[in-house]
UniProtKB/TrEMBL annotation:
Classification via InterPro entries: FAD-bd, FAD-dep_Monooxygenase_BioMet, FAD/NAD-bd_sf, HpxO
Main EC class the enzyme belongs to: oxidoreductase
Organism: Microbacterium aquimaris
Gene behind this protein: hpxO
Residue span(s) of domain FAD-binding: 2-342
Enzyme Commission number, as recorded: 1.14.13.113
Protein name: FAD-dependent urate hydroxylase
NCBIfam families from the UniProt entry: urate_HpxO
Pathway: Purine metabolism; urate degradation
Protein's UniProt keywords contain Transmembrane helix: no
Family recorded in the similarity comment: Belongs to the FAD-dependent urate hydroxylase family.
Keyword RNA-binding among record annotations: no
Known cofactor(s): FAD
Keywords: FAD, Flavoprotein, Monooxygenase, NAD, Oxidoreductase, Purine metabolism
């Protein structure tokens, strides 16, 4: 069977590897000109790592991942430690260590594993025609390709999603802007093996370790959509928002080089919906469940899609349409629940309800981390990659 995938991101490339290894002819098209992903890094929790292990990339992913032993929260302005605890229970309960990874490194690994000769960049899909026997995709340059199945992994502003749903699925602003990037690891910010987060005033400033002695930093500022920003402003908005915060935060701001790594992203998501398939065309990843990054499950959920899709293709033989409907049924509820959990978390942490945020801050002071661990593991245990085992 020939399969065309639109989108070479984490979801599209991982799906391509899985379907290719089942013996299918797979071709990936992407509108990007080169590997320049949005966002500096991502959290690979145990469910996402397990999918990559299943694809045969366990050693490579471990090499890309940061060693994140502990988690700690600090009061943003004073720098006072609120709590600090080990993340080892996440590994013990789920059977796999989580890894923060640089997004470009992971995407490059997936694209190279799939085979760059079968990836066509600078290719923007503009038309899809499904005649019931084959699907023809038309691109902006007038070229076409025909396949037995088409998978849309083309992101939050998905063209393929509009074909599948008939349009009308709109992104919704999550209420805050995120700045992120990569900096050299620096003990003045936090221990190099720790997920360090400073919180206060509904804002968040955090670092996670990634490979090559680097920190992935991400900073959240609640604000309206559309606030003007010029790249020449560099870290000025961060200094305005965090100028009175703790020395560790100032050390981070001093370390950021805007010319090397600084991204500004308004955070949007999509209310869960359950139409992921139309005929021989299906969607996965952000095209199907665009989520805010508040529980770190966006990329992991896309990897779960790839796992579920490949299992459906390998085990169902009635028709392409039947296979895709079974994939859809296996994924929409689980993925939608993660979107809703991330929304709830964003509401709690960004002072959209100030009383709820203050209650959350109070819950952090002196905690042993058991409740936080339960929340992290709760996002992982129902993953399809766990084959119903959940936690041990």
């Amino acid at each position: 069977m020939k399969i065309v995938i639109i989108g070479a991101g984490i979801g599209g490339a991982s799906a391509g590897i899985a379907l290719q290894r089942l013996g299918h002819e797979v071709v990936i098209y992407d509108r990007m000109r080169e590997n320049k992903p949005v966002g500096a890094a991502l959290s690979l929790w145990s469910n996402g790592v397990k999918v990559l292990n299943w694809l045969g990339l366990a050693e490579e992913v471990a090499d890309l991942g940061g060693r994140m032993e502990d988690m700690a929260y600090y009061e943003g302005v004073t720098g006072e430690e609120m709590c600090r605890f080990s993340l080892e229970p996440v590994t013990a309960l789920t059977g796999q260590r989580p890894y923060p990874v640089a997004r470009a490194d992971l995407q490059a690994l997936l694209m190279e594993t799939f085979g760059m000769e079968n990836i066509h960049l600078s290719s923007t899909a503009t038309g899809i025609d499904d005649d019931g026997e084959t699907v023809t995709v038309t691109f902006a340059d007038g070229s076409t390709d025909t396949a037995d199945m088409v998978i849309g992994a083309d992101g939050a502003r998905s063209f393929v999603r509009d074909h599948v749903t008939g349009g009308g699925i709109e992104r919704e602003y999550s209420g805050y802007t995120n700045f992120n990037g990569l900096v050299p690891a620096n003990e003045a910010i936090g221990p190099v093996d720790q997920w360090t987060t400073y919180v206060g005033e509904g804002k968040r400033c955090a670092v996670m370790p990634v490979a090559d002695d680097r920190f992935y930093f991400f900073v959240d500022i609640p604000q309206p959509s559309g606030v003007p920003y010029d790249r020449a402003d560099g870290v000025a908005p961060l200094r305005e928002a965090f100028g009175s915060w703790a020395p560790g935060v100032q050390a981070l701001l001093d370390t950021i080089d805007p010319d090397v790594s600084l991204n500004r992203v308004e955070i949007w998501d999509i209310t869960p919906f359950h139409t992921w398939v139309k005929g021989r065309v299906a969607i996965l990843g952000d095209a199907a469940h665009n989520t805010s990054p508040d529980i770190g499950q966006g990329a992991c959920s896309a990897l779960e899609d790839s796992f579920a899709l490949a299992i459906a293709v390998a085990t169902n033989t009635l028709s392409v349409e039947d296979t895709l409907r079974r994939y859809e049924k296996s994924r929409t509820v689980r993925a939608g629940e993660l979107v809703d959990r991330a929304r709830k978390r964003a509401h709690e942490t960004h002072a959209f309800d100030p009383a709820a945020t203050e209650a959350w801050y109070e819950s952090l002071r002196g905690t042993d981390g058991a409740g936080i661990i339960r929340g992290i593991v709760g996002n992982i245990e129902d993953s399809p990659v766990n084959l119903g085992v959940g936690t041990l």
